[in-house]
Each structure stands twice: as structure tokens, then as C-alpha cells.
Amino acid sequence: MELVKPAFGLIFWMCVSFGLILFILKKFAWTPILNMLHEREESIQNALDSAEKAKEEMKALQSNNEKILADARTERDLLLKDARDIREKMISDAKGIASKEGERMLTIARENIQNEKMAAITELKNQVATLSIEIAEKILKSELSSDEKQKTLVNTLLKDVNLN
Amino acid sequence: MTNNNNIFKPFSVSLFLLFACLFTSSAIYAYDPDNKSTEKQAVGAAKELVSKDKKFNAGELIINHITDSHEWHVMGEGEHAIALPLPVIIYSSETGLTAFLSNKLEDGEVYKGFKLIKNDIVIVDADGQVDEKASSKLWDFSITKNVASLMVSVFLMLWMFISVAKAYARNPGKAPKGMQSLLEPLIIFVRDDIAKSSIGEKKYKRYLPFLLTVFFFIWINNLMGLIPFLPGGANVTGNIAIGLTLAAIVFVITVISANKNYWRHIIAMPGVPIGVLVLLTPIEIFGMFLKPFVLMIRLFANMLAGHIIALSFFSLIFIFAEMNTAVGWGVSIFSVAFTIFMGMLELLVAFLQAYVFTLLAAMYFGTAVEEHHHAEEHH
Fold first, then answer.
1. Residue A34 is part of which domain span?
2. Domain count within chain A
3. Considering only CB atoms, which chain B residues are within 8 Å of A40?
4. Which of A17, B5, B133, B188 lies deepest, with the highest CB count within 10 Å?
5. pLDDT single digits (tens) B191-214
6. Which ipTM did the prediction report?
7. Cis (ω within 30 of 0) for the bond into B185?
8. Which tens digits make up the pLDDT trace of B85-94?
9. Are the beta carbons of B173 and A20 separated by less than 8 Å?
């Protein structure tokens, strides 16, 4: 029966030692150890979180880079297209202007030609008139050189006139 | 569910203990020292044993090792025994406080009117007769073997954990080193798998220092008990007083921290008709005391059984050696092999008992502080 009979002295010393060890360990061991563990766990968690965040940022940055690159590419394409357009426009413009100028010059030339022609015609006309007058003078002179001839003429003229 | 296991386990252990006791007691009483030479001739096999002056008594040896003592036995037997004397501290209203070393009481000597009978200190009068009346009033505060062993492990624990705490303070936020890395997983295990899971995220912090202390206290004392020589070898956790004290502390903490919900479940289980309550309430109240009682018995019986088995195997050697020295040598091979096996098992049991005690204590605290909405899930 000695085995199951708790001894008073042992209970007393057990209470004393256990109370003491609980108090001392709580104050000098458990509290600092648990705090440190908690802190470390938190710092590890924080490190993991920030690594994850950095990864995400990196990813965002990468996608951003890609976007910028794509933008640049489209812009380049746009610029090239613009340049091509401008070139074409310039060429077509130049072509237009040239044709217009040519036309204008042609018109002027044509006008000049017309003018020259007109002048030539007038002069020709004048010369023809002068010549005609001279010819007529000569003819008249020859026609009216005799009385007979003058009579014939008057007769002819009179025949034409009639008495209306 | 766990409660059922809790109840059955100590039963099975006690059963085992009973068999162990039967086995050892049969060894004790097999050879009665009073049987002198008359039966010697008749029982030829027992001849050698009885003819010797000093016979090996396994039961006595085991009981001496597992019970508390006023001296710390190191080696040897009888007059050649080497033992560390321990302080005897006795208080009674008549003689006041008396303190002396236990070697003054060696071999039944009387010192200052005190005498040691077995492990109890009694008062004897001038004629050498035991004064029963005065003896019953004695308060024995002696530093016995168990108390001394307790103190050794307390200092060991203080040194271990304070040095570990200092290591944490020295390199905060760094990976653990040395003893830190041995104890840290255990501390985290107690915190996460015992306290947090049984008590709950919100309230576990209050109980954590106690649970950690209990866990390591039981574990280290169990391990110290496995060391067969000074300063180990004392059967501290296998002593009922230790289990009783620890269980009483668990009970007191449970009752103090119990909330309204806990008492309501004990006094009047919600949703149970009154007719059944008449039956249920006494059971619940009985269960309230049974839980710490079971804690005490489990620890006590498990650790005691371990010590008894180890000693029994060794005793076998000497029991057989008294029949025939060669047989003793032969048996020793098996005994040592079995003791090694049991030692391995005891290493596991030492941890397991610390874990089970702490886990159950945490579960009792958990039910004591449980909130209403959680409680409904159990029914």
C-alpha cells in the first residue's frame, strides 16, 4: 500500500519546486522564448510576403515593359506609315503642281501662239487689202483707159442697177 | 472519444501492473526465510538458495527501488551498501523543527528520539517503543530520494531553458543552434499541437507557460528515472504524490478558469430532459473529479510499470543465478536484451506520458473555456 499512499513531504516539496520552476521559467524562459519565436515567425512570414510581393511587382514590371515595347513598336509603325503617307502625298502634290504648271505654260504658249497668229493674220489682211487696192487701182486704170470701156462699164452697171 | 481511451488506458496499464506485481510477489514469497533445513532436503532445487544466509529477494529489491527513501542508494547491499545520506527535516508541535542527515538513523538506530522504520520516521520513547500517538503528529519534510531527484531535474530544467532563452536573446531572428534546435521543435509542438489545437487560438496563451512546464517537467523527470545511477534512478514520476500534485494543479486551473458554459454543461446539460438530468448531473460532477484522477493514475501507473519491468528483468538474472551460476549467466543475455528493448520502449513512454498528460490537461482547460457555440458541436 505504500505505493499508492502519497507522502506528505513529497507533495510539499513538489508544490514548492513546481511552483518555483513554473514562476521562474515563465518569467525568464517561456515569455522570452515564445516572444522570440513569434517574432521570428512573423519576420519569416514578412520576408516570404515581401518576396511574393517583389515577384508580383517584377511580373507587373515585366508586363509593363512589354506594353511599353509594344507601344513603341506601334508608334514606330505609325511613324513609318506617316512618313510613307507624307512621301506619297509629297510626290502626288509635286506631280499635281508640275502638271498644273505645265498646263499653265501650255495655255500661255497657246495664247501667245494665238496672239501671234492673229497679229500675222491682221498683217496679212492689211497686206492683202493694200495689194487688193493696188491691184484694183491698176485694174481700174486699165479698165478706164478708153472711152469705150468706160461706156461698157456704165452700161453694165446701169443694167445691174435697173430702175427700181 | 478521447475520454474513453483515457479511461481504458490506465486500466490496461493497471492490469499489467497487477500481473507484474503477482509475478514479483510470487518471487518474494517463493522462498520463505523461516523454512530452515527441514524442507531443505525435500526440495532439492531450492537447496542452495535456502542454505545461504542472504537470499536474493526480487520483490524487496524492486519495492526498495521504486519507493521513496531517506537515503540515495548508490551500490552494494546490507553493511557494504554505499548510499548518499539525505537531510531529514521533521516538524511536530511537540519537538519543533528538527533536521539531521539520514545516516544517523542507519540500521534502525535511534537519534534524538527518532527511528526509521521502513521509510517512515517514528518517535520512540525511552524504552525503545514506538510512540504511535506522537508519531502520527509528525510532519515529514525530509529531502528524500525523490525530492532530491526532483530538485536535480528542476535545476537541470532551469539551466536548460534559461540558457536557451539567453540564446534566443543573443541572436534574435536567427536560426536556432545547439540545444535551442533540440528544444525549439518541442516548444512549438506543445504550442501548436497541444495548446492551440485543444484550447483554441484565442485563449491558449494564458495556459501555455503551465503546459510547457508540465510537459518538460514530466518528460525530464521520466528520462532522469531511466538513468540507472545517481543523479537519476529515482522513481519520481512513478510516485503517486507527483501525479497527485500535478493533477490537483490541473484540476484547480480548470475550475478557476471555467466559464458559465462549462458549469452549465456539468450542472444542467442543455437540451437534456429533467428526468435524465437526475442521472446525468451526478455523473458529470463525478467526471469532473475523475478526469484529474485519471491523469494521476495514468502517469503513476505507466512510469511505475516501466521501472518494475526493468528491475524484474534484472532480478531474473539473480533468481536464476542462485539456482546455478551458469544459468544466471545464460539468463543474463536474455535479460539484458529485454531490458534494452524495454529501455527503448521506456524512452518512448517517457515522451508519450509527458505528451498525453499535457494534451489532456490542455483539453480540460479547453472545455473549461469553451464558448457556447462551440459546445453545441459535441452533442
1. 18-150
2. 1
3. 172-173
4. A17
5. 999 999 999 888 888 899 999 999
6. 0.77
7. no
8. 888 888 888 7
9. no
